[in-house]
Design a protein that fits this description.
By secondary structure, the protein is an alpha/beta fold. The chain has a domain of 37 residues. The protein is 37% helix and 21% strand. It has 11 helices and 10 strands. The structure holds adenosine-5'-triphosphate and magnesium ion.
Length: 286
């Protein structure tokens, strides 16, 4: 097990005690070190970013503890291990990561984190170039200022900076938010590849149920700071559970419902996208 939460609460302290915000309650959760593709969903303010921020000890629990690889993270700051090793093994792509670009050139920006984690200049460069290849970042862009790029290109550069140090687990906070649909699909395909071919665990916060249904093998639905559902996405949408977390059905399931009602069919929810649905329909006599 790579990450285990044990009875974790998180309160954000306000200026006065009565302004404290209870953001997480009694979280128990296990995440494997490889092969998982987890979507974290729930309405705004339900605790998604707070939950995921604990997974690389960006914030500390106020109660309980979190085991991350061999380290135990507790509420007491002084007792906690040096965090660099955790951060190296668990990469976090923040919401709008392009806001954190700062180097003179794209290449220097992508090399920054691997160098910071102890790779030599040469090794950092090799890794940065590999990450660019994976993300389809054009070589012509490498010597440009990151601020001269489009929003989608900047997002890819920011993601390349994380992939370049090859973390075991990737935490993603709404990685496709604000991207045009084509770039969003490209970026999701890269995460799917990293998960399937390199066996990395991915934990992705998203409000997009279409992405959840197509890519995630496990869904954690948050409600009012608690885990309301943890399981396969098909089980989240097959009854009213998703409504209780203020979620909507993925388009593909709306389409299945529509076909079932209008054509009197009995298609199940075991279809991830239109292509799979078409294959199913070919086997049905209309
Ligand atoms: N730094 C902070 N200080 C005080 N309260 C905070 C802080 N960050 C989050 N909160 C509060 O904690 C609760 C959970 O917030 P969190 O950011 O984890 O929600 P979220 O599910 O990620 O929401 P969103 O979908 O809007 O990103 C909310 O009530 C929020 O107002
Ligand atoms: Mg959030």
């Amino acid at each position: 097990m790579a990450i285990s939460f044990h009875e974790v609460d998180h309160d954000y302290s306000g200026l006065r005690k009565k302004d404290d915000v209870k953001a997480l309650f009694d979280i128990n959760l296990n995440i494997e070190s490889k092969d998982e593709f987890i979507a974290v969903v729930g309405k705004t303010g339900s605790g998604k970013s707070t939950l995921v921020s604990h997974m690389n000890a960006l914030i500390l629990p106020t109660k309980g503890n979190i085991k991350i690889f061999d380290y135990v993270i507790t509420p007491k700051k002084r007792k906690n291990p040096k965090l660099k090793e955790i951060r190296k093994r668990i990469g976090f792509v923040f919401q709008f990561p392009e806001y954190q670009l700062f180097e003179e050139t794209v290449l220097k920006d992508i090399m920054f984190a691997p160098k910071n984690f102890g790779f030599s200049e040469e090794e950092a460069k090799t890794r940065a170039l590999e990450a660019c290849k994976l993300l389809g970042i054009d070589k012509d862009l490498l010597e440009k200022s990151p601020f001269a790029l489009s929003g989608g290109q900047m997002r890819k550069v920011a993601i390349a900076g994380i992939l370049a140090y090859n973390p075991d687990i990737l935490l993603l906070d709404e990685p496709t938010r604000g991207l045009d649909p084509k770039t969003a699909i490209e970026v999701m395909k890269i995460f799917a590849k990293i998960n399937k071919e390199y066996h990395k665990t991915i934990v992705m916060i998203t409000h997009d149920m279409n992405l959840v249904y197509e890519y995630a093998t496990r869904v954690i639905a948050m409600k009012d700071g608690k885990i309301f559902f943890d399981g396969k996405s098909i089980d989240l949408f097959k009854d009213d559970t998703y409504k209780k977390c203020n979620l909507v059905k993925p388009d593909i399931l709306d389409l299945v419902d529509y076909l079932n009602t209008s054509l009197n069919l009995d298609l199940d929810y075991n279809v991830k996208n239109e292509e799979e649905l078409l294959v199913r329909l070919k086997g049905v006599s209309l």
